[in-house]
Amino acid sequence: MVDRTKATSTTAGILRPEELARHAAVERVPAHPGLGRHVEYHWRLCWDLPPGSSYPSETLPHPACTLSVELGEPREGVGEDRVVVTGVVTRRFDVTLTGSGWVLGTKFRPGGLAALAGLRARDLTDRTRPASGLLPEEVLAPLRDLTPEASPARAAAVVDEALLGVGPDRPDPVYDDLLLLVTEMLADRDLQRVAQLEERSGWSRRQLERRFAAYVGATPKWVLARYRMHDVVTALDAGYDGPLADLAADHGWYDQAHFGREFVALVGQTPAAYRARTGRRRSTGSPQQHA
Asked: Which residue in 22, 70, 71, 141 has the most C-beta neighbors within 10 A?
């Protein structure tokens, strides 16, 4: 059985968090213990920008699906129904904040939404879809009644109560085993290759690929790479000042050029440039937040 107190998500998240904090407020709320097998936590984002101004928020991708209530200026992919499900985003998640808005998100554990609602995560990868048709209407109705006036705790409690009414008819041992493996992938920094996952899980490469596609919506190789890249960013945020080649090698990249390309593709700047900017933040005492 999965230990519901163990994290299946890194703390890496919002890029340039001190800049976002000047434009918006982010807060996490724990999920109901009864949802711990499937849900990591809830989060709330709210903003109120002057007319004509905007802020481009950038977030590192996680191997998780999100159920969100989004009020205010709609982002791409969100239509009239503001209760939506976003699958695993395989690239950096960029949203430009304009005007005023309020978002309550429920971050599922890797595979959690698929296991809870009987969905195929691969059908949601890199997509945002109305939650209607994916979750029962009796679950969604109270979410549609939420307003920005609700406190984060109260809004999260509404989602908790609704989701507690959803659940599989019988245990899902495949999901339990997959989530245990994901927990180890996050906790054990020496896990860097899919072959190691085969040994650890007892599943063949084909079984790993198929089960990660169905439950998570991404390949096991992608999940490993994201967790290790999150570790790299976290180390740089914490003040790592050693050789970048050593940092890359410690987290599974033995080709410095390959590491640099992946870092730029995900973060948007070179590791050296990110470290330099992080150093300036620390020198000025800027606060840190993670989503």
From this structure: 70
Q: How many angstroms separate the CA atoms of 229 and 44, rounded?
A: 25
With a CB cutoff of 8 Å and minimum separation 6, the contacts of 273 are none
Correct CATH for 173-283 of 1.20.1600.10, 1.10.10.60, 3.30.559.30, 2.40.50.140: 1.10.10.60
Q: Are 136 and 163 in contact (CB under 8 A)?
A: no
User: What does the pLDDT look like over 92-113, one tens digit per residue?
Assistant: 898 899 999 999 999 999 999 9
> What are the boundaries of each domain within the chain?
17-163, 173-283
Calculated CA dihedral for residues 77, 80, 86, 91, nearest 10 degrees: 20
Q: What is the pLDDT of residues 178-220, one digit of tens each?
A: 999 999 999 888 888 999 999 999 999 999 999 999 999 999 9
DSSP run (H or E) holding 90: none
Copy the structure tokens of residue 116.
Answer: 């809870």
